[in-house]
């Protein structure tokens, strides 16, 4: 097809553009490699990783999780370009060698048909996505909250220009190839296996067909070669970076944070991320794998409630800054440190503390980017190095340091939740079948204590041999770790691992998904290999084996999937199976299972005020609950996490709403009591000299009477008591036991409450320091007070 001069010109053009493009890819690799070594295994089991990447890429299964129509148009472009790798190679050879692929053979006919049809479909897909991005109302998907920090290049419409350039390239590249194919048919005759090219052939005459063939050749292949020079900087680079991201995907769930080496003796300890190169290299790869679809922003609870955080903006800002460094700091790609800190460059301090670590951004991302882990590394830097974090977190940190729980309540009160119940510790029962990990919430929070008390009554009713650690148990450190205080987390976690390794539990069951995640998944990083199960999973086995039987209730029940139970640990069915046993009217929330919406407690948010926004995260979720249960007479919101329960029970939008918020264990206990009497042990320390018998529920008890037994009130935080003053925990007394009348009942402890002065000074609000040397202006929140 090409003359000798044209062949020489094409080869020279290919050499120049190919060399420039190859150098661009090399520099891109150097920028990604500037990140620190990752603590997660990324190259192990390479054949399996490669197969996963191939299947995930070719099926586009992660892309189709959301926006099915948009994903369909995207898939047209993707599959077209995959096949075009072969088409471009064949077309290039046809320009140098006298051969053509005829439709007269089966293979040739299939090739020509696919090339023709996919050319048309690619053009349809590009036009549809261009209309969506620039003209249709859906263009709002690509906008950002006014509070969100944006890189200067984003503000200068770099992303928009890049989208236009990529769209024009695809249209010109594929269009030129279609024109060349049409001109060939005009010269050679119609081909029924190339309907699109045959349609275009009517635009040409046999006299000018050859000229248009040459134009199509240069237009299609020349545009590809020219685009190679721009490719490493365009969003189109995700074609190669996304499959690579699949290859190096994390081998653990999103609930497991990367391990951190705590080398406190180093002159400049690396305990987080201050600059871009402090992030692990796979998270610099994230910036180039990102397809800028903003799906992570769509599901982020912080973004949905008008806060400054946008996971999408974080990744886009990273890419813009990496490209900026490649232009202005040549030494960065050779290991020279960048000058600008991450905070104030790719993320504002306000946004860094708005993350709930719910994992929705990681779950929904088509290319498995990990923006949540960037935020954790930034928090680690701010807490352990800079000492800059919301003031309210200091209270939780101090509580964990002094009393081994974030509530700051005396550790000696850790077993008070079990007053009057048949609960033995591992000192009394060293080899139980089940070790119940109570957790801090169930130990000290009244609402969560109801869950723990319901659970142990169910275990007792089913005849399960169980025990608790009692005062040997301390906080798992989940709050400290999510807040960035890895050092405090390790202090608590190491102590728990040592205790559990000594106890050697057969099975650990937890009512708190955060505890379950820490003990069962994260403790494996520090020598703790334990089998851990959520209480709904264990209760499901008891129901399935017939050890627990329940009758249906009349309430309409809906279930809220906790992030740390569902998305982070994949437990979705067990709670629902239990609810279907105790209610014949179970309805799903619109956002459920892996698409569940956070309650707002995770990521240490429970211990601080929310950042400025349009509404509370818990209000957003509870509004959905109210809409779903509207019209029902008796309404129940079932939960499987103590923090979800507390957040949704106390959210301002609930007010006096009749929706009851209960743990699945509480509801199951009510159902079991409807079926048969459940023995409920009561404390022997009562104000009577008569024998005390265990109270037994009768089948005639009214529904109001079957509520879970109220736990004792939580004692306010106080200083550690000397050992001689510690009051012994009330013991459970079996049925038929008596109380010695000569022993007077112990008076309840009273904690004096200081009067609140109306002249008390207002609590100081936390305000982030401005990142020195940042080229960006950080937008201030509308309500600085909300930063607390």
UniProtKB/TrEMBL annotation:
Transmembrane region(s): 6-26, 69-90, 110-131, 210-231
Molecular function GO terms recorded: 4 iron, 4 sulfur cluster binding; metal ion binding; oxidoreductase activity
Biased composition annotated in UniProt, kind: Low complexity: 713-722
Protein's UniProt keywords contain Oxidoreductase: yes
4Fe-4S ferredoxin-type domain sequence ranges: 281-310, 345-375
Domain of life of the native organism: Bacteria
Compositional bias (Basic and acidic residues): 776-788
PANTHER family: IRON-SULFUR-BINDING OXIDOREDUCTASE FADF-RELATED (PTHR43255:SF1), IRON-SULFUR-BINDING OXIDOREDUCTASE FADF-RELATED-RELATED (PTHR43255)
Record protein name field: 4Fe-4S ferredoxin-type domain-containing protein
UniProt source species: Granulicella tundricola (strain ATCC BAA-1859 / DSM 23138 / MP5ACTX9)
């Amino acid at each position: 097809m090409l003359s000798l001069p044209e062949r020489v010109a094409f080869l020279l053009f290919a050499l120049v553009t190919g060399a420039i493009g190859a150098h661009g890819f090399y520099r891109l690799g150097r920028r990604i490699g500037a990140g620190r070594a990752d603590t997660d295994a990324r190259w192990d089991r390479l054949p399996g990783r490669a197969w996963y990447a191939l299947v995930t890429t070719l099926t586009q299964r992660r892309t189709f999780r959301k926006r099915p129509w948009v994903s369909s148009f995207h898939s047209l472009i993707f599959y077209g370009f995959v096949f075009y790798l072969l088409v471009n190679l064949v077309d290039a050879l046809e320009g140098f060698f006298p051969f053509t692929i005829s439709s007269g053979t089966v293979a040739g006919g299939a090739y020509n048909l696919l090339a023709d049809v996919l050319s048309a479909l690619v053009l349809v897909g590009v036009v549809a996505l261009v209309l969506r991005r620039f003209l249709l109302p859906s263009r709002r998907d690509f906008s950002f909250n006014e509070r969100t920090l944006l890189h200067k290049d984003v503000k200068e419409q770099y992303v928009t220009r890049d989208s236009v350039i990529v769209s024009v390239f695809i249209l010109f590249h594929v269009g030129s190839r279609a024109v060349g194919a049409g001109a060939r048919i005009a010269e050679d005759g119609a081909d029924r296996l190339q309907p699109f090219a045959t349609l275009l052939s009517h635009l040409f005459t046999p006299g000018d067909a050859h000229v248009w063939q040459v134009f199509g050749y240069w237009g299609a292949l020349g545009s590809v070669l020219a685009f190679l020079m721009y490719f490493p900087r365009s969003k189109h680079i995700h074609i190669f970076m996304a499959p690579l991201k699949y290859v190096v995907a994390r081998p653990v769930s999103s609930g497991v944070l990367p391990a951190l080496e705590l080398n406190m003796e180093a002159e400049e300890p690396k305990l987080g991320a201050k600059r871009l190169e402090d992030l692990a290299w796979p998270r610099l790869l994230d910036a180039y794998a990102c397809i800028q679809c903003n799906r992570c922003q769509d599901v982020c609870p912080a973004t949905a409630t008008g806060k400054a955080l946008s996971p999408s903006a974080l990744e886009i800002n990273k890419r813009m800054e990496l490209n900026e460094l490649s232009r202005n700091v040549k030494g960065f790609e050779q290991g020279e440190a960048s000058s600008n800190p991450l905070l104030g460059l790719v993320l504002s301090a306000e946004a860094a503390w708005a993350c709930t670590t719910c994992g929705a951004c990681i779950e929904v991302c088509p290319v498995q980017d990990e923006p949540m882990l960037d935020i954790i590394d930034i928090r680690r830097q701010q807490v352990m190095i800079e000492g800059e974090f919301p003031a309210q977190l200091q209270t939780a940190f101090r509580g964990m340091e002094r009393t081994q729980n974030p509530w700051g309540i005396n550790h000696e009160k850790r077993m008070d939740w079990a007053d009057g119940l048949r609960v033995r510790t591992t000192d009394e029962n060293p080899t139980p079948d089940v070790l119940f990990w109570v957790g801090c919430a169930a130990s000290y929070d009244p609402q969560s204590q109801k869950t723990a008390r319901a659970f142990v009554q169910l275990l007792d009713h089913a005849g399960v041999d169980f025990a608790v650690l009692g005062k040997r148990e301390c906080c798992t450190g989940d709050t400290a770790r999510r807040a960035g205080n890895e050092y405090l987390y390790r202090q608590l976690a190491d102590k728990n691992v040592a205790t559990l390794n000594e106890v050697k539990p057969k099975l650990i069951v937890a009512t708190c998904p955060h505890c379950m995640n820490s003990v069962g998944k994260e403790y494996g990083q520090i020598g703790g290999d334990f089998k851990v199960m959520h209480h709904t999973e264990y209760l499901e086995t008891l129901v399935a084996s017939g050890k627990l039987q329940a009758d249906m209730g009349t309430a309409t029940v809906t279930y809220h999937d906790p992030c740390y139970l569902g998305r982070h640990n994949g437990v979705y069915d067990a709670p629902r199976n239990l609810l279907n046993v105790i209610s014949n009217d179970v309805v799903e929330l619109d956002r459920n299972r892996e698409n569940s919406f956070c309650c707002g407690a995770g990521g240490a948010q429970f211990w601080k005020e929310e950042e400025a926004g349009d509404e509370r995260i818990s209000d957003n979720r509870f509004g959905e609950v109210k809409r779903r249960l509207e019209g029902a007479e008796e309404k129940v919101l079932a939960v499987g996490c103590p923090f979800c329960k507390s957040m949704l029970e106390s959210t301002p939008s609930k007010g006096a709403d009749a929706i009851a918020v209960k743990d699945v264990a509480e509801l199951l206990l009510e159902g079991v009591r409807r079926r048969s009497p459940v023995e409920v042990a009561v404390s022997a320390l009562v104000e009577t000299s008569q024998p005390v018998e265990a109270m037994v529920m009768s089948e005639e008890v009214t529904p109001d009477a079957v509520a879970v037994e109220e736990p004792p009130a939580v004692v306010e935080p106080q200083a550690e008591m000397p050992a001689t003053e510690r009051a012994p925990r009330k013991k459970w007394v079996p049925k038929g036991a008596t109380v010695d009348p000569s022993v007077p009942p112990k008076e309840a402890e009273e904690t004096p409450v200081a009067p609140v002065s109306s002249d008390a000074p207002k609590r100081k609000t936390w305000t982030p320091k401005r990142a020195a040397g940042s080229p960006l202006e950080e937008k201030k929140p509308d309500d600085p007070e909300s930063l607390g």
